[in-house]
Specification:
The chain is α/β, with parallel strands linked by helices and about 375 residues long. It has 14 helices and ten strands. A ten-stranded mixed beta sheet has the order 7-6-5-4-3-2-1-8-9-10, with helices on both faces.
Length: about 375
């Protein structure tokens, strides 16, 4: 998609709240054994090892595009185990969507990185669990993966692929400033924190009810979230301050400000190619092939703290309000339209966008040079 086509497409999508996002689990197979995840190779949760079929995946991507999805995050299991990963990335890019991959980094050898670059990938999220390489490798069950991640970061930097450390908040991180030092040492410049997941009700297995690493009391988790918030000036942290504050309110069971866009602007597709509003939700919308005709879900849900859905909801809140206002204006409902635009949450979200501008600008620059 050309430089001009992107903003034109975004304007076209504004009446439906702007471009949407979808996480797609292209396999349920993983080569790691993270304590806080039920995809782990040594747990018995994966009954049938599955990789999504490439041709069906492409048909599904066509439907996602029609429904306004422009950002696709390929997850797993471990997505680099999918034999057609680079073809899926290339199809997504050619379709006009921006793919990213979340990986444990174990298979990020030079050849794969070059192939992903050729396919048009611009963003890689690489998981890190601890300030200590040794503890990280032990939790992952992936010896020497930190060396590989360090080399991958260097190669990605040379090729213009943005890498972002993806860190699940867990008890291996006793010292957050130390974690940021270790991320720098590994070659990261940006980090995104995932909030611990004790339960998911969809087919996604990236949670654990039994792991002590993510067994937090309210006070402990609030303390960790506040610490991350306090470090935003020290390192490029993608989670916005407003989003961290919303999650603190969630943990404390206080009133939520931002309705989640899961089911409207954000979705989860699993390794059966079934689509859910999010990974927390127990019932699927249907097969991805039925999604073309299914209504969006907008019920103001704030039931969970699934990070990508909740963090995105804060940032795209104003775009959703503009879409709602435009819909009302088309029906001549001027007062209602003004109500959408005048919501306090919009001002808070816009303030956040201004505060986060330097991070977003940096990421947008990566997009335009080859995307985030
Ligand atoms: S967190 Fe990722 S790498 Fe670890 S077991 Fe789960 S899917 Fe595999
Ligand atoms: S709040 Fe949680 S359960 Fe509700 S839509 Fe968002 S991600 Fe799904």
């Amino acid at each position: 998609m050309s430089v001009l086509q992107q903003p034109i497409d975004a304007i076209k999508l504004l009446p439906m709240g702007g471009p949407g996002i979808c996480n797609i689990a292209i396999t349920n197979v993983c080569n790691a054994k993270c304590d806080f995840c039920n995809y782990a190779r040594d747990k018995m949760f994966v009954k049938e090892r599955l990789w999504v079929d490439y041709d069906r995946m492409c048909q599904g991507l066509d439907i996602l595009y029609e429904r306004g999805i422009r950002y696709v995050t390929l997850v797993g299991g471990e997505p680099t185990l999918h034999p057609k990963l680079k073809e899926i990335v290339a199809y997504t890019v050619n379709k006009g969507m921006r793919p990213s991959i979340v990986t444990n980094g174990s298979r990020l050898g030079s050849a794969l990185i070059n192939e992903l670059k050729t396919s048009g990938l611009k963003t890689l999220f690489i998981s890190i669990d601890s300030p200590s390489n040794e503890e990280h490798e032990k939790n992952r069950g992936l010896p020497n993966v930190c060396d590989r991640i360090k080399e991958a970061n260097q190669q990605c930097k040379r090729l213009g692929i943005k890498t972002i450390a993806s860190v699940t908040i867990n008890k291996l991180i006793e010292d957050f400033p130390k974690l940021l030092d270790s991320l720098k040492e590994l070659g990261f410049e940006t980090v995104n924190f995932a909030y611990p997941k004790r339960v998911l009700n969809s087919s996604a297995l990236s949670f654990s009810q039994t792991s002590e690493l993510i067994n937090y009391s309210t006070d402990e988790l609030v303390q960790a979230l506040e610490k991350i918030k306090s470090l935003k000036g020290e390192f490029r942290i993608l989670n916005s301050s407003e989003s961290l504050a919303e999650i603190v309110r969630f943990v404390r069971q206080e009133k939520q400000i931002y309705s989640c866009v899961g089911g409207y602007k954000y979705f989860y597709v699993d390794y059966h190619l079934d689509i859910y509003r999010c990974d927390y939700w127990p019932t699927k919308i249907g097969s991805i092939f039925e999604f073309r005709d299914r209504p969006f879900v907008r019920d103001g849900c704030t039931k969970c703290m699934s990070g990508c859905y909740r963090d995105a909801s804060v940032l795209i809140h104003p775009a959703v309000s503009v879409g709602d206002a435009l819909a009302d204006l088309r029906q001549g409902k001027l007062l209602s339209a003004m109500g959408h635009l005048g919501k306090r949450s919009n001002f808070l979200s816009l303030k956040t966008l201004v505060q986060e501008w330097s991070t977003l600008k940096k990421l947008a620059k990566t997009h335009s040079q080859g995307d985030l």
